[in-house]
Amino acid sequence: xxxxxxxxxxxxxxxxxxxxxxxxxxxxxxxxxxxxxxxxxxxxxxxxxxxxxxxxxxxxxxxxxxxxxxxxxxxxxxxxxxxxxxxxxxxxxxxxxxxxxxxxxxxxxxxxxxxxxxxxxxxxxxxxxxxxxxxxxxxxxxxxxxxxxxxxxxxxxxxxxxxxxxxxxxxxxxxxxxxxxxxxxxxxxxxxxxxxxxxxxxxxxxxxxxx
Length: 211
Ligand code: BEZ
Hints:
Structural class: alpha+beta
Shape: elongated
Oligomer: single chain
Radius of gyration: 19 Å
Bound molecules: benzoic acid
C-alpha cells in the first residue's frame, strides 16, 4: 500500500554505517531527511552524499537528521564513503542504511520497476518528530536532487507548523505567507494583529516577520 502524507512511517531495524538502528528511536525528537540511492560507487549518488555532508550544519540548524539508504551492504557503504570523502572534500558523518535484500526499499516503495527491478530510485522522505510523513519527492536515477529545494521545503513545513500559515509558490524564509482558507477573517484579525492584505476573499497575505 502506498505511503501517504500524514501516515506514520514504517519502523524498521537495520545496520548502518554508524551502527545498528531502530528507525523511530533513531529519529527521536528530531526531524529526519531519509533519502535513497540506486547504488554505491555511482557518480550522481556520490555528489548527493557529498552535498548532504556539506550541508550538515544547515540540517542541524533545522533539527533535521539526514540518513541515506542504498541497496548494498555496510561493508560496501564504508568503502564508498572513503571515495565520497576524497572526491567531495568532506567527511560523511550521517548514517547510510544497508539494505542488501531491498526489504526497506520495498517497504518504502523506493523500487520503481519501470526504472529498475533491483535498485532504488531517488526518494526523499521528510519525517517529523511524531514520525509522520510530511513530504515526499521522487527523482529518477539519472537526476540528482536539488538540495536548496529540500532545505526550502523543510523551512516551509516548519514555518507552517509554527505560525499556522500556508506558503505560496517559490516562498523563501522572510517572504510573506498565506492565511489558510480554514481561518475566518475574524480569527485572522485576532491571530495576526499586524494585519493582513486581502487580495481576494480566499487569498490573504500576512507578513509573519512582524508582530
Ligand atoms: C548515479 O548515481 O550516478 C546513477 C546510478 C544509477 C543509474 C544512473 C546513475
